[in-house]
Amino acid sequence: MSYRINDVDKTVYTSLPYERYDTQTVAQLYHEHWEIELGYRNIKSSMQHNALTRRSKTVESVEQEVWGMLLAYNLVRREASQAAVSYGKAPNQMSFKAAFQYIAVQLIVMADALSPGKTGARLSELRGGVASLIIENRPRLSRPRTVKMSKTRYPVNRNAALLK
Questions:
Q1: d(CA 112, CA 115)
Q2: For the segment 95-138, what is each residue's pLDDT rounded down to a tens digit?
Q3: Please, are residues 22 and 10 in contact by the beta-carbon 8 Å criterion?
Q4: Same-domain pairing of 69 and 131
């Protein structure tokens, strides 16, 4: 399916039935899917420092770690979005990585605070600080996207059976 956005023709290949999904719907779904992929990238690169595996050893611990990561991601994204909107900016104009680092440091500082009665005021200051991380003009990629080499040091059996 092809569509036009900002005077640029875009083509999306899809297995969705064309009788059921028009071009605009597919384009909208594609952009929503891309935002989800960007969220995964933020979790992997900003929050996990590109770690390939979970630290936990048991299934229950891995599940707990994944849920904790998703909770932390959503909390950071929520605070960053609210700060952006309060300054009249779109939430996607906020740098996730910078917001995550800023919020993490501020929460460590708040944990050491002697007077927990000022938590509300500190949260307001935190939101004000996050608003300073707004990116006015996101730069476009200078090169086309490419598939990166695997970071694993171990041989990969490409003919292995899929996990079920």
A1: 9
A2: 888 888 888 888 787 777 767 677 777 777 777 777 677 776 66
A3: no
A4: yes
Same domain, 5 and 66: no
Domain identity same for 20 and 81: no
pTM above 0.70, yes or no: no
Asked if the structure places residue 76 within a domain, the reply is yes
Same domain, 42 and 62: no
Q: Which of 147, 22, 123, 161 is nearest to 14 (CA)?
A: 22
- The range of the structural domain enclosing residue 71 comes to 58-135
* Angle at which helices 119-131 and 96-111 cross, to 10°: 160
Could you say which DSSP state residue 10 is in?
Answer: E
Helix (H, G, I), strand (E, B) or coil at 94: strand
